[in-house]
Amino acid sequence: MKDRLRELVETLVPKGSVVQQAAKGGVWMTVIRVLSQGSYLVMLLVLARLLSPRDFGILGIALLTLSAIKKFSNIGISTALVQQKAEDVDEYLNTAWMLEIGRGVLIVVALFLTAPFIARFFGEANSELTAVIRVIGVSPLIYGLQNPAVVYFRKDLDFHKEFVYQTTSSFVRCGVGIGYAIVSPTVWALVVAFISVNASKVVLSYALHDYRPWPSVDRAALSELVDYGKWITGASITQFIHSEGDDVFVGWFLSATAVGFYQYAHRIADMPATQFTQVITTVTFPAFSKLQDDATALRDALLGTTRLVAVVAFPVSAGMALIAPSFVPVALGEKWTPMILPLQLLSVFGLLHAITRHFGGVFNALNRPDYNMKLDVVRIVCLAVVIWPATAQWGLAGTATAVIGVYLFPMFPLDVYAVSTLIEAHPLEIFHEYVYPAIGSAVMFGSLWYAHGLVDVSPLVELVLTVPIGAVVYTVSVLLLDELFSWGIKRDIRHIAAEVQS
């Protein structure tokens, strides 16, 4: 048994061609995301029963504050090192380490001083939000202390090491969060769980790589990292505003409890499809970087990636919208029912986010990170026009509708046009990859929605039956489409399996 397990692990160690490494890396990253996000989801489901929506809202506001200052100070160190054509980036690591530590110190000081004013801005001056922000602010400093050589896990497609690094810290977070909540069911269970992730990663980073950083700064390396990172900084700022600006607006315009409902709905709607896309993005960015001088190979890789993402994202997002009315009361409890409609609406956002997220890897791989920032600026301007009147009219549902509307038009067509231009493809080639998954998902959604109207069962029974039946209906639909129109998804899956086994 041990020999068979060892043989399996050796087979999956990323080696061989770029395609083979990416395929095997994809297996590792899939397992990483399933275990990491699975343990995170378990923690959230348990804590949703023990804590109140307001507790999640308080943490949500603190994390928004932390995210804002992190994005405004992000110079894309990890991205810059992965994008480097050189295999050996040791000469940059000490400088990168010092930059991350310095950034962590600045964040700690900034959040400690501004926490009372931030709490007052959100109407929580007399709550525990100030203390939560100050404690959460320590996490970037802890993160900065980790071994900078962990960048090699992704740069070299060594995802078997990334597996240990990510999953272990995720299990620590789950255990710490649930354990603390059982003893003391307060917002501090969420805070301690969040900090435990970075603390465990520091220990793991030195255990998994033998490089040992030293406090020193190389001026040439510093200049190069900052020069590449200026667009990453800009993109990070605009990304925060467009991706989390709606959360900030909800917290300011409505309440901390509303933030709890909205962020939880956003997180759940975005998790299934986007976590799969995150696997693809993590694997394909270094692969795209290695193919940046081969236009034909890069184009084929992007189209194949888009097809694989779409075949998963469409049914998962459609399924989430379908099961939301039964999932929320069964999994979270009746106190969370106000988030059902926002969850259904945001499932559309989860789909759009999932099927375009990997485009950013192409922009970065081709040394055009400015595309991310420029597209985000357009998103921000459009969202700023509609979010206030929509939220004032329909509450959280209005906020979700505004976010979806902007993503549908003009952003989705613009994203496709931008990436197709870079890879020298026609936009219709990318849109074509979405057609068959959309048809299969529509068949699944329509048939199950009709069945729900015919049968009256409890939410638990509905939830238990809908998921497997939906998976079968979609799979049959996809296989039939593949046979009738030579779509090619079965061919792609067989090819990936062959590359993994080789």
Automatic annotation (TrEMBL):
Principal place of residence: membrane
GO cellular component labels: plasma membrane
Coiled coil segments of this chain: none
CDD domains: MATE_tuaB_like
Keywords, alphabetical: Cell membrane, Membrane, Transmembrane, Transmembrane helix
One Pfam family in the UniProt entry: Polysacc_synt_3
Transmembrane intervals: 27-51, 58-81, 101-119, 131-150, 170-195, 308-327, 339-356, 377-396, 402-422, 434-451, 463-481
Topology within the bilayer: Multi-pass membrane protein
UniProt-annotated location(s): Cell membrane
Similarity remark: Belongs to the polysaccharide synthase family.
The protein, known as: Polysaccharide transporter, PST family
